[in-house]
Design a protein that fits this description.
Layout (H helix, E strand, L loop, with lengths): L3 H7 L1 H12 L6 E5 L6 H13 L13 H7 L6 E4 L8 H11 L9 E5 L7 H12 L5 E7 L7 H5 L2 E4 L5 H10 L4 H10 L3 H8 L3 H18 L4 H12 L3 H22 L12 H9 L3 H19 L4 H14 L1
Parallel strand pairs: 1-4, 1-5, 2-3, 3-4
Length: about 325
C-alpha cells in the first residue's frame, strides 16, 4: 500500500494540492484526472477514496489498516464503484445502474465514491447521465473521472470538475528505482519505456511473463529481417500461446513499437535512449537496411493494429497482417 508521501514522488504537485485540500476538509465533489497511461491516475484516485472513507485517518493520511482502507485496496468496498468501458465505450445503462445504486443510502455510511475509467469513452447518453450527478451532487459523494484524452470529455463535465493534469514521469528516475529494487537492466529498461507506474511495473514483473514476452518480440523482429519464412511459425508456436488476453496483445504491440522506435533511434545515432539496451548490434544491422521513412511506416502499421485490437478483430489475423505489413515495409 502506498502513502501520500510515496505518491508525492510520482506526482508532487497534484499530491500536494490534494493533501492540502484534505487537511482543510475542502474536497470538491468531482475531479477530472487527465494524463497518459502509467502516470498514477488510478492509484491516486483510490488513495483519495481511502482518505475519504478512512476511520482512523491522521490528517490527510489514511491509516491503511482499517476495514475501509483494506477493502478499497482489495477492490471490494461496497460504496466505492468503478465504471470501466463495456466493449469500446461506457454506455448509458452502466451509468443508470450506478444511479440506481446511488439512490440507496450508503451500505455503511452516507458516503459514496465512483471512479470512471476512460471517461473520454462515454457515449453521449452516458456523459449526459454523469452530468446530472455532477450538477446535483449528493452531500457526501465523490466523483473521480480518469482520462488520457481530456479534450474528448464534454466541456460541461470539465466545468463541473476540478481538473488535474498528471505530468509524465521522468524515465530515468523510474528506471533507477526498478534497478535498485533488484531487477535486471534489460527488463528495467523495457519496463521504463512501457509504463511509468510502479504498481503496473510490479504486476508485469510477477512470474516471468515479461521476460518471455521480451524474448519472443526480439525473435520476431530478428526473423522479419533474417528469416522471414519462419515468422508465421514463431507467431503460431510462441506468440499466440503467450499473448492470450487482449491486454497482453496490446502490451506486445507496444513492445514491437518500442523495437521500431529503437531502430529509428539507432538510425539517427540516439543509442543512449534504447529500450532494448542489449540488442544494439542487431539494431545496427537492421538500421543499415532501413530508411527512416520505412521505419515510420512500420510504426504506423503497429499503431493501426492497436486501434484494430479495440474493435475485437481476430488476434491471429491481426498479427499475421501486421507482420506481413512490417515485412513488406
Amino acid at each position: 500500500m502506498q502513502t501520500w508521501n510515496e505518491l508525492k514522488e510520482i506526482q508532487p504537485r497534484i499530491t500536494d494540492l490534494l493533501v492540502k485540500t484534505l487537511e482543510k476538509n475542502r474536497l470538491a465533489h468531482a475531479y477530472l484526472f487527465e494524463g497518459s497511461k502509467g502516470t498514477g491516475k488510478r492509484v491516486v484516485a483510490l488513495h483519495l477514496a481511502k482518505s475519504f472513507f478512512c476511520e482512523k485517518s491522521d490528517g490527510a493520511n489514511p491509516c491503511l489498516e482499517c476495514s475501509n482502507c483494506r477493502r478499497i485496496e482489495h477492490g471490494n468496498h461496497p460504496d466505492v464503484h468503478i465504471i470501466e468501458p463495456d466493449g469500446l465505450s461506457i454506455k448509458k445503462h452502466q451509468v443508470e445502474h450506478l444511479q440506481k445504486e446511488f439512490s440507496y443510502r450508503g451500505v455503511e455510511s452516507a458516503k459514496k465514491v465512483y471512479i470512471v475509467e476512460h471517461a473520454d469513452l462515454m457515449t453521449t447518453g452516458a456523459a449526459n447521465s454523469i452530468l446530472k450527478f455532477l450538477e446535483e451532487p449528493a452531500t457526501e459523494t465523490l466523483a473521480i473521472l480518469l482520462t488520457e484524452q481530456g479534450s474528448k470529455v464534454l466541456p460541461t463535465i470539465h466545468s463541473r470538475s476540478q481538473h488535474f493534469t498528471f505530468a509524465p514521469l521522468a524515465r530515468e528516475n523510474f528506471l533507477d528505482k526498478l534497478v535498485k529494487d533488484g531487477n535486471s537492466n534489460t527488463i528495467s529498461s523495457l519496463l521504463a519505456s512501457l509504463t511509468t507506474s510502479y504498481a503496473e511495473a510490479e504486476q508485469l514483473l510477477e512470474g516471468d511473463w515479461i521476460a518471455q514476452a521480451r524474448t519472443v518480440v526480439i525473435q520476431l523482429m530478428e526473423e522479419l529481417y533474417t528469416r522471414p519464412t519462419q515468422v508465421l511459425f514463431t507467431l503460431q508456436e510462441k506468440w499466440l500461446p503467450l499473448f492470450k488476453e487482449k491486454s497482453q496483445i496490446d502490451l506486445g504491440l507496444d513492445m514491437i513499437l518500442l523495437w521500431l522506435r529503437d531502430l529509428m533511434f539507432t538510425k539517427v545515432g540516439k543509442v543512449d535512449s534504447l529500450s532494448y539496451i542489449d540488442q544494439i548490434d542487431l539494431l545496427q544491422q537492421q538500421a543499415l537496411t532501413s530508411s527512416q521513412e520505412t521505419i515510420s511506416q512500420k510504426m504506423s502499421a503497429v499503431l493501426y493494429a492497436k486501434r484494430q485490437l479495440t474493435a475485437n478483430v481476430n488476434p491471429q489475423l491481426l498479427m499475421e497482417k501486421l507482420l506481413l505489413n512490417i515485412q513488406e515495409g
